[in-house]
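Render this sequence as a predicted structure.
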Amino acid sequence: MAYFLAVKVSARYRVAMLVLVMAPFWTSQLLRYYAWMMILGSRGIPSWIAWFGFGDVQIITEASVAAAHALGLEIHAWTINDEAEMERLLDLGVDALMTDFPARAFGVLRRRGLRR
């Protein structure tokens, strides 16, 4: 297909052909990304878990952090955007926090004396 677009199609139709060839690819990628966002987002798996009655399940607990550290593993908590949750996880001894709001995390770390 690339050879056909590069050599056989006249310059006049090359852009149109390129769009016609790439549009399905772009569409499928967008649908795939959107599907994963829905599955992992607040209306996906977390809401399904809550629907089955397991809404207040804590994955990172004092026991899980201790067990991981005993095995020489680090705990990295992803997408922690709530300051209270950041505080709770740091109190448990997690090794790293990832967030969409670094200013909030810096504020938490400053209050704890871990960041200037």
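Summary. The radius of gyration is 23 Å. The CA atoms of residues 41 and 47 lie 9 Å apart.
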